[in-house]
């Protein structure tokens, strides 16, 4: 079985991660104490991808929960599924990172690194055939960003042949008022460009607009985490249930990433529902496909119509006709052919899973590697640049051991990435 180890880093990573485990445990028939109460062999068939079978037939998530602030983990432990995790897989510091990337990367985070690597090694050794790591984190604060970067560097050194997949939450002033978020984000993006194989961008700017304008609901962190966790569950469907396409992380990365640095994808999940209202209207395959390509439900604040898709992948769930799904996807591609590069053949992949999400007849999760995502990086780089020009707050970072030259080199790497996306957008057939 090709197993995955999940690392939840920082406050956002842990709160989103616990929601992810709640949903997939429900889908696989795992109760909060780890016992199996499902009704189908399909729920068990690929359980080992995410769970270890422990003593007494209990299923335990293959997950490491990390935060500099012990308060987050106390919240996770006290949640309904808190007892599901191995107690020794909770690793916490003594105090938070103060929203400082350098603290997570160079000082407080590094002090915890040996403890983190010990637990990750134990999880990896318990796998028959480890395929890779999935890291759930945000990059606006200090722990998910700085310590997340340090962990990625260490894991890459030790497991260079494995696949690294990040679920990365990007900050927005609409959601948070931490003034140094642009610094933390650019430093983290610089690391993600070099160390991640596939980064799924979950942009708070877009998630806020989905809550307000599409779902017309409140926009608490719980609402944002609900949207993020539905996307992660949709993306992981093919790893967790039997399917033909993108059935493991490496295959998904190969299909979505045409060039190593250009590995940032924007997801969406349809039909969208709010946390409080999980009722679903009757929906058809044409509805699903139409909604899937609507920029308003994309979880990154960019408009794919202003760019071109290099690649994309869709996961449909429910008892659907393969022929109908593929026909609708081809029709949509044909109608929007100018928004797909023509020099990558068969660049839109479709996978089907018979098992719908709980309470739904059908759903679809989409991942698009579009050149339009440069707008997201441009937004953060612009805020970064205007702060760095004034040398605002840099003493917080140099005080933790950073050099001022790092501010220039990291920004330069992100600007290069933006240029690469633009170059592929303009590339002729």
TrEMBL record:
Annotated Tubulin/FtsZ 2-layer sandwich domain residues: 245-382
Localization, UniProt: Cytoplasm, Cytoskeleton
Co-factor requirement: Mg(2+)
Domain of life where this protein originates: Eukaryota
A molecular function (GO) term: GTPase activity
Transmembrane region(s): none
CDD domains: beta_tubulin
Alphabetic keyword roster: Cytoplasm, Cytoskeleton, GTP-binding, Magnesium, Metal-binding, Microtubule, Nucleotide-binding
Main location: cytoplasm
Tubulin/FtsZ GTPase domain residues: 47-243
GO biological process entries: microtubule-based process
Entry annotated with the keyword Lipid biosynthesis: no
GO CC annotations on file: microtubule
InterPro entries: Beta-tubulin_BS, Beta_tubulin, Tub_FtsZ_C, Tubulin, Tubulin/FtsZ-like_C, Tubulin/FtsZ_2-layer-sand-dom, Tubulin/FtsZ_GTPase_sf, Tubulin_C
The protein's assembly and partners: Dimer of alpha and beta chains. A typical microtubule is a hollow water-filled tube with an outer diameter of 25 nm and an inner diameter of 15 nM. Alpha-beta heterodimers associate head-to-tail to form protofilaments running lengthwise along the microtubule wall with the beta-tubulin subunit facing the microtubule plus end conferring a structural polarity. Microtubules usually have 13 protofilaments but different protofilament numbers can be found in some organisms and specialized cells.
The protein's role, per its UniProt record: Tubulin is the major constituent of microtubules, a cylinder consisting of laterally associated linear protofilaments composed of alpha- and beta-tubulin heterodimers. Microtubules grow by the addition of GTP-tubulin dimers to the microtubule end, where a stabilizing cap forms. Below the cap, tubulin dimers are in GDP-bound state, owing to GTPase activity of alpha-tubulin.
Family (UniProt): Belongs to the tubulin family.
Protein name, as recorded: Tubulin beta 1 chain
Gene name per UniProt: EGR_04297
């Amino acid at each position: 079985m090709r197993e995955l180890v999940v690392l939840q880093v920082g406050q956002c990573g842990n709160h989103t991660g616990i929601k992810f485990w709640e949903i997939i445990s429900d889908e696989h028939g795992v109760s909060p104490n780890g016992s199996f109460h499902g009704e189908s062999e399909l729920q068990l068939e690929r359980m080992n991808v995410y769970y270890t079978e422990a003593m007494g037939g209990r299923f335990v998530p293959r997950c490491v929960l990390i935060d500099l602030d012990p308060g987050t983990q106390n919240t996770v432990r006290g949640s309904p599924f808190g007892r599901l995790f191995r107690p020794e897989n909770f690793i916490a510091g003594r105090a938070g990172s103060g929203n400082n990337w350098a603290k997570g990367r160079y000082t407080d985070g590094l002090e915890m690194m040996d403890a983190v690597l010990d637990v990750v090694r134990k999880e990896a050794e318990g796998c028959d055939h480890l395929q890779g790591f999935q890291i759930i984190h945000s990059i606006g604060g200090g722990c998910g960003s700085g310590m997340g970067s340090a962990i990625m560097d260490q894991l890459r050194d030790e497991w260079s042949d494995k696949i690294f997949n990040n679920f990365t939450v990007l900050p927005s002033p609409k959601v948070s008022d931490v003034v140094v978020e642009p610094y933390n984000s650019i430093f983290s993006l610089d690391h993600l460009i070099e160390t991640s194989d596939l980064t799924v961008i979950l942009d708070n700017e877009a998630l806020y607009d989905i809550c307000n304008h599409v779902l017309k609901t409140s926009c608490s962190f719980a609402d944002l985490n609900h949207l993020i966790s539905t996307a992660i569950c949709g993306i992981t469907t093919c790893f967790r249930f039997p399917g033909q396409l993108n059935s493991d992380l490496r295959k998904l990365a190969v299909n979505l990433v045409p060039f190593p640095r250009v590995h940032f994808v924007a997801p969406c999940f349809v039909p969208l529902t709010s946390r409080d209202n999980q009722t679903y209207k009757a929906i058809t395959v044409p509805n699903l496909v139409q909604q899937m390509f609507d920029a308003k439900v994309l979880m990154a604040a960019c408009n794919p119509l202003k760019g071109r898709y290099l690649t994309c992948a869709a996961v449909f769930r429910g008892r659907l006709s393969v022929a109908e799904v593929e026909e609708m996807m081809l029709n949509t591609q044909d109608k929007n052919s100018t928004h797909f590069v023509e020099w990558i053949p068969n660049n839109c992949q479709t996978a089907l899973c018979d098992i719908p999400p709980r309470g739904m007849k059908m759903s679809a999760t989409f991942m698009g590697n579009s050149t339009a995502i440069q707008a997201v990086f441009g937004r953060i780089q612009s805020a970064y640049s205007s702060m760095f020009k004034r040398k605002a707050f840099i003493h917080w970072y140099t005080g933790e051991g950073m050099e001022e030259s790092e501010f220039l080199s990291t920004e330069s790497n992100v600007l290069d990435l933006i240029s690469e996306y633009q170059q592929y957008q303009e590339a002729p057939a």
